[in-house]
Amino acid sequence: MLIPRQPVPALSVETVAHGTFDLAAETSERGTVVCFYRGLHCPICATYLKELERLTPEFAKRGVATIAISSDDAERAAEMVDKVGAKEMRIGYGLKLPKAKEWGLYISTSRGKTSIGIEEPALFSEPGLFLVTPERTLYYGAVQTMPFVRPHFSELVGALDFAIEKNYPARGEYTGAV
Asked: Which domain holds residue 128?
């Protein structure tokens, strides 16, 4: 389990149109939103990523970069870029499943073709959303076992405004006895 205020695992993937993404090389003022998505086969992911694309400029105004990452290959990732009209947001691909597990993501097995007629990979990760500080520590994290009921990016933008104004710390860092 990732712990707020503690370092997150290393993360490096290729992107469709922005070269190699390496979390250790990120230079945004207030951090990076890392959105792990299921893949091209997921219609909910496409809708979700359209919203992240729309709000990426709002995150940027607050000094936060964005990236969406899946275990899809380059071809499927490029199809997702087209599907969501990604111009502002980076889309990474080739996430290795052991790395997904390091980030605490759940792994699912294929159930064949989805409702939109696209074959699921044999294994793929379920969604996760993280805000990583410039120091590469966890500020916010949410992982899911299903594609449904995801955190809203507009709420995360609003939370950022509050956190910036109040210098609000990451919470959930206590790991002692209870």
From this structure: 12-166
